[in-house]
Automatic annotation (TrEMBL):
Stretches for region Disordered: 1-26, 764-787
InterPro entries noted in UniProt: AB_hydrolase_fold
SUPFAM superfamilies: alpha/beta-Hydrolases (SSF53474)
Annotated transmembrane regions: 128-148, 193-210, 256-275, 287-310, 331-348, 368-387, 399-421, 441-464, 511-532, 558-575
Protein name: Integral membrane protein
Extent of Low complexity compositional bias: 768-778
Gene source species: Streptomyces violaceochromogenes
Keywords, sorted A to Z: Membrane, Transmembrane, Transmembrane helix
Keyword Transmembrane helix: yes
Amino acid sequence: MERAQEHASTGGSDGPATRPGEPGTALELLVHGVGGTTPQEMLNDPRTVRITGDDTAAVFRRADDVDAEHTPDDRRREGPVPEAYVWCNLTSGNGTRALWLLLLPFMVVNLAHWMRPTAHGRRRTVRLYGLLVRLTALTLTVLLVAAACEVALDLAAWQCAGTTACADRHTWLGFLSPTVSDGGWWSAPGRRLALAAVVPTALTVLLWYLSRRTWSDYESQQPIERAPEPEGDGGPTALGRPGFWYGRRLVARLRAAHTAAGLITVAAAVGSAAARFDRRPGGPAVLGVLGLVLEAALAACAVAVVWVVCRRGRSERRLDRKLDERFVRRLPLVALVLLALALLYAGWERPGWTSEGRLPGDATFGGIALVQGLLVIVLGVVAHALHRTDPDRRAVLRGLGGPAVAMLACALGGVMSGGVSQRVSDWLDGTGASLEGPPVLLTWQASVIPPLLVVLLGLIGWLAHRAWQLARAERAAVALDYPDEDLDPARTRRIAYTRAMAALTDRGPRIVAVTSGVTLLLGAGALVGALATDETPGEAAQGAYPVVHGAAETSQALGSWLIGLGFLLFVTWGRRAYKDASARRTIGILWDVGTFWPRASHPFAPPCYAERAVPDLTWRMATWTRATGGRLVISGHSQGSVLAAAAAWQLTPSARKRVALLTYGSPLERLYGRWFPAHFGPDALSSLHRDVDCWRNLHRLTDPIGGPVRLPGDSGPQVDHAPLKDPLAYGRTDLLPLPAPILGHSDYQADPVFAEERRRLLARLRPEGPAAGEVPAPRHQPEPPAA
C-alpha cells in the first residue's frame, strides 16, 4: 500500500514507454461521487497502491498496474489502466467535520454568490451582485456573535445573575449575584458583562482559528501556473481561469473583516450598556465622555470593516499570491484593542448601577433583520437585471435562485439564534417568570414558525400528489421499455414509483421559491409587530377577538417549543455524527454538494474541497499526458463528474484535446447548470464539449441526481446517451437468474453500456508523443501589479 513515488506513472529512469504513432497505454482516471468510497471498491481489487497524494486525497492503482507504462503488455489487459482518485477525506474523514453543521447558514449564503445569472458585458452589475452577497454574509456573522452575546451577557450575566431567585437556582452564578455574593467584586453589572464577554469572544476566536487552519490547508493549494488572462468577459465560464481555484487573498481579507466585526459586536454589547448608564442626568462626566469616544471608535472600526468587505472581490484571472497584510493583521488587532478598552470601561466602579429588564437587544436584532431583508430585496433586483441581459430558460426562478438562497441563509441564522436564546432562557428561568427573557423580536420570529410549517406541509402534500400522478403516467412508459416481458403489476409500480420520485428533484426550485418568499413575508411581519408593539405576540393580541388572541398565544408557545426542539435535534445530530461514522458520512454528503464552491462571501463557511481536488486532478492529467502522450479518459460519477469537468477546464487547450470525458449520474446540467448558470450554463457546457476531445454522458430515469446534459443546437457529436435501462432486466433471465435491482444513482459500471462507451471514447482518442515543450510556467515569476 505504501510503495512510493518511484512507481509513479508520469515517467521514470527508462522514460515513457509510449512512442509517437503507437497505441500506447490508455489510462482511466476514476473520480468517485458524494459519500466517498475506498480505492479497493473503485478498482475492484483488494491490493491497491498509492501512486501519489497523501492521507487526505490520493491517486491509487492496482498493485499489478503500478508499472503499466514501463512494462506494456496488451495481452494481459483489454481496457485502460484504471486509477482511482479518492477525495472523500476532504469532506467526511474527520469526526470534527460534524461541527461544521453549526456553520450551515454561512455555507448557504456562500452558495448564493455563485448562483448569479449569466451576463455578458455587465461587469459592474456582476460586481454589485457579489458585493451584496458579501454584505449579507457579514450580517450573518454579526447575528451569530450577537446571539452569543444575548445568551452570555443578557440572559446569564445581566438578567439571571441580577435576579435573586434565578441566581439561587443556579449556584454557579452565585459569585456574580449582588445578593448571593453579598456585594462581591464581580457582582457589579459592568464587571459581570465584562466577564461574560469571554463567551462570544471565544466563539469569534474559534471561528477565526478554524478559518485560518482550513485556509492554509485548502486555499493554499496552487493550481498549475498559467499566464494571466486579459481583461474582458473571459469566455463562457470562469472555471477555466488561472486563479479561480486559488482564493487565498480574498479569504484572508474576509477573515480579518469578519473577525473584527465579531469583536466589535462584543465590545458594543458590553460598552453600550455602561455608556447608557453614564449618560443619565447627573452621571459622571468623565465616564460619559469616555463612553462617547469609545462608541465613536467602534463606529469608525465598523465602517473600516464594511469598507474592507466592499473593497475587493475575487481575483480569478491570475494566481494572486499577495496578502493584504495591513488589513489581515491590523484590523483584527485594532478590534481586539477596542474590545479590551470596552471591557475596562465597563468594569469601572459605578455606584448605584443595577441590572434591570433586558439589555438593548431588540434594536440590535431588529436592525440586523431589517438590513438583511433590504439586502436580499436589492440582490433580487440586481439578479433580475442580470437575467434580462442574457435570459436562460433553464435557470431556476428566472435568475432569482441566488436571492432566494440568501434569504434562506438569513432565516437559518435567525432560527438558530432564536433557538439558542429561547432554550437558554427556559433553562435559566425554569417554570417561573423571574426573567424578562430574550428580545421581543426573537419571540416574534419564533411565533411565525408554525405558519411556515403549515406552508411546508402544503408543499409536501403537493409533492406527494405530483409523485402519484407521475407514477401513474410512468407505468405505461415502463411497459414500453420492456415490451417482450410478462408484466407484473407490483414490479411495474415499483419501477414507475422510483422514476416518479427521481423526477421530483426538478421541482426543487418551486419549493425554494415558496419557502423563501413566505419566509421573507413572515419575517417582515415579525419585525413590524415587534417594533410596533414592543410586546410578545400573546401580549400584543390581548383585547383582540378571542380567536386572534388564542391563535397568537398558541403560535407563540408552539413556535418557542418548535424552535427549541429543532435546535436540540440539530445539536444531537451533530453529536451523533461526531461519534458515528455512518452518520458522519451522511453529513459528508451534504458538504460534498454545499462546499464545492470557494469561500467567496463568507470566510467562516466550511472550506472548499475543490480547491484541493481540482488542482490534484489537473496536475495528474497534465503530467501524465505530457510524459506519455497517451490516451486518458477521466471518468466521473455524480459529484466526481463536476470535479472532472472543472479540472478539464483548467487544462491547457492542447492537453484538453488529449482527454476524453465520461460522466455518469452527473448533476452537471440538472443541478449545477440550472442553479449556477453563470458557470455551468448552456454556453459553458457547450464550450467544454468543444474543448475536450470527446465526451459521453450516461444517465437513468430512476436517478434523482444525475441527468442529461442537454447541449443546445449543433454541438458536434452527441453527448447524451439514451437513458439506461434500470433495472437491467424486468424479470429473471439466463444472464440474471435472480431479480435485478433498481440501481438509481449507483453502480453505473455494472451496465454493459458503460464499458462499451468507454471503449468508443478510447477509440476516438489518438496518442501523441510526449509534449516536452508543454511545461508549467516558472514558479517564481515577477508578480503582475495588483488590479
